[in-house]
Amino acid sequence: MKHLLSLFFALTSLVISVHAQEIQIQGLVRDQQSGEEIPGATITINGPYKTVVFSGLNGSYVAKQLAEGTYTITVKCIGYKPFETTFNATSEKKQFLTITLEPEKRELTEVIIAGRHDKGSDAATLQVTRRADHILNAVSARSIEISPDLSVANVSQRISGVSLERSSNGEGQYAIIRGMDKRYIYTLVNGIKIPSPDNKNRYVPLDIFPADLLDRLEVSKSLSPNMEGDAIGGAVNMIMKTAPEKFSVKANAAVGYADKYFSQDFNSFSTSASLNKSPRYTNGNSYQATMTDFPNNAFSYSSKHNPLAALAGLSIGGRVLHNKLGILVAGSFQNNYRNVNSEFFESETDNNTGEATVTSFQSRHYSIQQERSGIHTRLDYQLNQNNRINAYVGYMNLTKNELRILSDTNMQLGRVGPGTGRIQNKYRTRHDVQQIVNTTLNGEHAIGKNFTVNWTGNWSKATFNRPDEGNLNLVTGVSKDPATGNLVQAPLNLDGTSYRKFAFSNDEDKTGYVNISYRTKLGAFQTTWSAGGMYRNKTRDSHLDRYMLRPSNPSIQVYDGDISHNNFNVFNGEGTSDDPLNYSAKENVGAAYGMVKIDYQNLEITGGARYEHTDLSWNSDVPETREGKTGSINYYDVLPSAHIKYNFDKQMALRASYYAAISRPNFYEVVPHVDPSADDAEEDYPEKGNPFLKRTTSDNFDLRFEFFPHALDQILIGVFYKKLDNPIEFSLQSDKVNTYYQPYNFGNARNYGFEFDLTKYFRWFGIKANYTFTDSKITTTKIYRHSYAGGITFDEVNQTRPLQGQSKHIANLSLLLKDDNKTGLNAQLAFTYVGRRINTVSQFLNNDIWQKGFTQMDFSLEKRIARQWFIYAKVNNILNTPYELYIRQPFNGSSINGEVPHQTPGKDTYIRRDTYGANYLLGVKFKL
Fold first, then answer.
1. What is the phi/psi pair of residue 479, to 5°?
2. CATH number for the domain including 629?
3. Which of 100, 150, 261, 526 has the most CB atoms at less than 10 Å from its CB?
């Protein structure tokens, strides 16, 4: 860390010192119409000597050590007409010249398009934030390129108010916006909602998207009537790369390494011999599987030394047919390896004291290989001045191979002291493939002077496949030799509960949109009337089979490390056709909206309402006697919204907004499933369904002050308030035999806070900082279990707590060095802090499981080494910050036989700790 800090500030000092010398001409480059500063303009000064300089990130420029005389100054910038003037340099040490550039315009009937800025630039993205009708934050493609982040999920954490829920390998997976869990957020590609590859939930894992395929990432924190209404927390919109105005080729390749491989090997397994789908799915319900359907590769493991990560990307695009047709093809591939060390304590509530009691300790080791790939094509064709057609086809794939080695020490069974007792060793192999295919056809038409129509047809499909998951379960024990006092381990035996599991699901959307708008003037008011509709047909299918494997000869159960020495029989060759994850669901959503936007002098008002009708039905393959086997939910919502923006001048504005929104239950949550032996999810407890869940509704208020003082600088200060009815959260529920993870509607909740977002550049050096304070409260009934002289009593008490996933404090700080023009050097040192938050809600008083707050530091560097060639580096998780869970009550070890590792009596009860290590990437780029 010290070396990276020293390197960063040394580079900063070097560049600043170069530009700190005495100058003769300095000034600003401004936009003639808006008065805004323009970064990246090329200023050529011809005279006795020729000098070329560039306007910095704040629009300023300096030209040093000029001789006296008359100079011709030429200024060029993409999107502006060339500018030329003469200037007489006198003997004065400092002279000032402000340059104004006129935007280059092209007219399409009455629509004027000013400039041809790179849509992925910081300047273009800043304008999107400024001109949006609703409250929005955005990150540009250029900022993404030079950041330490490789996936869209990790990019999103740099935006104010956004934190992440991480996957098993420590990478970001789901966004949490303003303390609102992932269920309250939807995901868009080019403004179109996409389905989820998750076989249980609606929300889309953002780690499936490579960040280098984006033009920009937008996070909407309020909704207008023309946006779908199920985003209480907000919406994540990925604007994919579009065709540039000039032919362009960009390519990059890199290799990487994880620092854990200095001391550890990577454990792997082969998937080549496994079936792609379950035997029952492939051959029908009457098929009886045998061991020939389950080769040993899922139970056979090997080691790799020093595996290297790899990354590659390519995009090619431009315009043809006299600039009428734009074509962009882009692809990305990322392959990385992670070792994760984890400690997990299973706990339960003590019947006598009501306190959390540790029942077992698990030492877990994960070896994870992950391949992320994507390819997309965008076409746009200008038929004539009034008609335009756009097409998009995208394919995203995330493949993950995970081997988990788990040693589970029971803290009560057979335990007579430290290091003794019953021990289970479990080996689990998973091969996950998530895919999203997205196709969109869109038309934009100007009919007459003030009337426009646009339409969109979309077909998209997301699939999830986990074929032939292998679970090998072994049992042993450690006892104390009474003669010597030494600890002796028993042989490692098969315990008869090994199994193979197959999971497959798909989620398919067919969606149509139409929007019309009419512009008119009512006195002094410029008014735009809009209306539109949407219809989506969604089908979700899920399939799961679990096959129990038992030793063919019960008397021979010893495992010597080579599974070929053991023989199994399939206990249930028919599979598990009645498993609740065998279900189908259909959902039809119809929507219509009306909206009006009024412009009057410095005031902009946008308001209207949206109507949405939801028709959800499902059919589960659980037994006929199970309540909720089939069901349907049918409801409608009217969602009003209003947005007011007052522009004090060209630089300052104040926004106020209100919108109503909903959050629909996830599919699997309403399917009536319960399986105490299931190991389906990353969660540490089995899940249970709730067919009586209701949708969540909310009223949302925002107020934000915006100030854009110079070029790329910005100050955003806002407050927000959300009132939620029937929020859905998961809690731990116990039936006195098993503990389940189950969704419930928990009354009402509120969530409020404020945000501060600052971007400031000093020519080539910049600071980005944001801070979000969030405070949410929900009061729910908890069970207070305690003992008295006559036995045990269970009382119900109310407890107020934050919403699950909400952190009170979130902060980001990035130190930036950006000089694309002269030195070709970019560097970023990024810090992220996320405060503690509830990870799992318990039904018992004070037994909620919390995630500790953490700080993450990342670093990136890019340097031009030739005209079109660059080298770059990215370093992630430099501080090796762990993921830690705990219960906020003192550990009580009195009911445990002997000491418990990693627990301290009187301190918080420790539940889980995962460490990931730092990761390094070094590569080369080519840009044409």
1. -130, 165
2. 2.40.170.20
3. 150
- Cα–Cα dist 382/389, whole Å: 7
3-state secondary structure 244-295: CCCCEEEEEEEEEEEHHHHCCCEEECCCCCCCCCCHHHHHCCCCCCCHHHCC
Three-state SS for 665? coil
Q: In this predicted structure, which of 244-258, 379-393, 407-421 has the lowest mean pLDDT?
A: 407-421
CB 669 within 8 A of CB 631: no
Who has greater pLDDT, 400 or 38? 400
DSSP symbol at 210 = B
Contact status, residue 879 vs residue 1, Cβ threshold 8 Å: yes
The residues that bridge with 26 in the sheet, in sequence order, are 62, 96
Task: Give the residue, 79 or 238, on which the prediction is more confident.
Answer: 238
Mean pLDDT of 691-705: 93
Asked if residue 604 lies in contact with residue 598, where contact means CB atoms within 8 angstroms, the answer is yes
Is residue 585 within 8 A of residue 195, CB to CB? The reply is: no
Tell whether 260 is covered by a domain.
Answer: yes
**pLDDT tier at 91 (50, 70, 90 boundaries)?**
low
Give the type of residue at 262.
F
- In this model, does residue 741 exceed pLDDT 70? yes
How far, in Å, CA of 470 to CA of 473, rounded?
A: 10
88-93 contact pairs (CB < 8 A, 24+): 89/24, 89/25, 89/47, 92/24, 93/22, 93/24
Where residue 21 sits, what CATH number does that domain have?
Answer: 2.60.40.1120
User: So what's the pLDDT on residue 14?
Assistant: 46
Residue 233 placed within a domain: no
User: In whole angstroms, what is the distance from residue 8 CA to residue 831 CA?
Assistant: 14
320 inside domain: yes
Asked if 153 and 162 count as a contact pair (C-beta separation under 8 A), the reply is no
Asked if 4 and 875 count as a contact pair (C-beta separation under 8 A), the reply is yes
- Residue 83 is part of which domain span? 2-103
Q: Which of 77, 103, 129 is the last residue of a domain?
A: 103
- Cα–Cα distances (Å) from 346 to 360, 626, 853, in that order, read 5, 30, 21
pLDDT of residue 897: 65
Single-letter residue type at 390: N
Q: Where are the beta strands (DSSP E) in 726-864?
A: 728-734, 739-745, 748-762, 765-788, 791-801, 809-819, 825-834, 837-842, 849-851, 854-864
pLDDT-based confidence at 110, cuts 50/70/90? very low
Q: What is the pLDDT of residue 278?
A: 95
User: Is the dihedral angle over the CA atoms 129, 134, 136, 141 positive or is it negative?
Assistant: negative
Q: Are strands 25-31 and 60-63 parallel, antiparallel or unpaired?
A: antiparallel
Q: Which residues of 473-487 are buried (b: 16+ CB within 10 A; e: fewer)?
A: bbbbbbbeeeeeeee
DSSP states along 481-509: -TTT--EEEPPPEE-S-EEEEEEEEEEEE
Helices (H) and strands (E) in the chain, counts: 6, 51
Q: Which amino acid is at 158?
A: R
Q: What is the pLDDT of residues 306-337, one digit of tens each?
A: 999 999 999 999 999 989 999 999 999 999 99
Q: Using an 8 Å Cβ cutoff, are 65 and 24 in contact?
A: yes
Which of 53, 86, 103 is the last residue in one of the domains?
A: 103
What is the count of structural domains for the chain?
2
- Is 216 inside any structural domain? no
Average pLDDT over residues 698-724: 95
Is the pLDDT at 20 greater than 70? The verdict is: no
Can you tell me the distance from the alpha carbon of 168 to that of 152, in angstroms, rounded to the nearest whole number? 17
Banded pLDDT at 354 (limits 50, 70, 90):
low
Give, for 141, the enclosing helix (H) or strand (E).
Answer: helix 141-145
Retrieve residue 622's tokens: 């659980």
Residue 512: in which H helix or E strand, if any? strand 498-522
Q: pLDDT tens for residues 622-645?
A: 888 877 788 888 999 999 999 999
The pLDDT of residue 490 is 82
